[in-house]
Design a protein that fits this description.
Structural class: alpha/beta
Radius of gyration: 23 Å
Helix content: 40-55%
Shape: elongated
CATH architecture of the largest domain: 3-Layer(aba) Sandwich
CATH class of the largest domain: Alpha Beta
Strand order of the largest sheet: 3-2-1-4-6-5
Strand content: 15-25%
Largest sheet: 6 strands, mixed
Order of helices and strands: HHEHEHEHEHHEEHHHEEHHEEE
Number of domains: 2
CATH topology of the largest domain: Rossmann fold
CATH superfamily of the largest domain: HUPs
């Protein structure tokens, strides 16, 4: 880097670090620093909303203080006619603070149903692929406390079990890439404050006001409940308690998989002992779901109803052969074999 560029970089870094002189900003950053707590390079997913812009600033400060290399990616879903110009605007805003970003574009036919869910999967795929190119295994996402609550209610409407209700974790993995949500315990008001304080403005996605989407309906419901006296801290405590219960089930699920299955041919086949199915209903369900997921080499698990049907077959019949989730499942006498289809 030339002396001139070093000087510009130094001035910009000072400008950013000076933002921490604001008491509220410093408190938010300190909390962020404690939650992130990594010493590896990472990428940041940016949308242009207040959450991701606040994440961009906090991550930049963290990288300066810890001498880390970060990559910023803006995903243009091409779902709205203004999406490309908005992505370029966000890119320009970030560059003012020496935050260099790349725009990743989702090309191809767009869905007419289940739009937000499909768009999320496409976004994650783009982020994972790009991170792998730079040999980076950590991606920061801007999910915050309100997202945690919204996810909880959405899963209730879907009839999800305990695992689904608490599925939005601070750290998850996708194709051996860590998805990290360092803002999951942050109130949206704090993120809006940071975004306005640092960048002066942010992008308002019109879809966030479109109540044809289930998430927006839930968001509006939560606002009404809050006006009626919903205590978010108590709600958060409930979710944390459910997470503790979920961790206990995860422990026994792992134990069941380790003790009662034999993996053959580099995960292409799994032999399951009869005792595997003598655990509690939830442990059996999760264990068998994981077997199908591993052998079928799928990121997302097979639908619960289908797993339940196969488990019922295993309990009722002495022998059968079916296919599910990219697997062939056979029962011969008391042994169940799950093989790659």
């Amino acid at each position: 880097m030339s002396p001139k560029n070093l000087n510009v970089s130094s001035k910009t870094h000072k400008l950013l670090l000076d933002k921490l002189k604001d008491k509220r900003t410093l408190q938010i950053y300190k909390k962020f620093e404690n939650y992130l707590n990594i010493n590896e390079n990472f990428t940041v997913a940016v949308s242009g909303g207040p959450d991701s812009l606040a994440l961009s600033f906090l991550a930049k400060i963290y990288s300066i203080k810890n001498f880390l290399n970060i990559k910023y990616f803006i995903v243009d879903h091409k779902l709205r006619k203004n999406s490309t110009s908005e992505a370029k605007y966000v890119q320009k805003q970030l560059k003012k603070f020496l935050i260099n970003s790349n725009i990743l574009t989702w090309n191809g036919i767009k869905p007419k149903k289940n739009i937000q869910s499909i768009a999320r999967k496409k976004r994650y795929k783009l982020l994972v692929n790009e991170s792998k190119k730079f040999k980076i295994k950590n991606i920061l996402l801007g999910h915050h406390l309100d997202d945690l609550f919204e996810n909880f209610f959405i899963r209730i409407l879907r009839g999800s079990g305990l695992k689904g209700l608490v599925s939005l974790d601070q750290r998850t993995q996708n194709e051996k890439i860590n998805f990290i949500r360092p803002l999951l315990n942050f109130d949206k008001k704090d993120l809006i404050y940071i975004s306005k304080f640092v960048f002066s403005s942010f992008i308002e996605d019109p879809s966030n006001k479109n109540d044809k989407f289930k998430r927006i309906k839930i968001r509006n419901l939560l606002k009404q409940l809050e006006a009626e006296g919903l205590d978010k801290n108590k709600f958060l405590l409930t979710i944390k308690n459910l997470k503790f219960a979920n961790e206990t089930i995860k422990f026994y699920t792992k134990k069941n998989l380790e003790e009662n299955t034999t993996i053959l041919q580099k995960k292409k086949s799994v032999v399951i002992k009869n005792i595997f199915f003598q655990n509690s209903t939830e442990v059996v369900f999760r264990s068998f779901t994981e077997v199908v997921k591993i052998v079928g080499n799928r990121y997302y698990p097979t639908r619960g109803k289908k797993i339940d049907m196969i488990i019922q077959l295993i309990n009722d019949k002495s022998s059968f052969k079916v296919t599910l989730g990219g697997c062939v499942i056979k029962k011969v006498n008391e042994t169940v074999i799950v093989s790659k289809e």
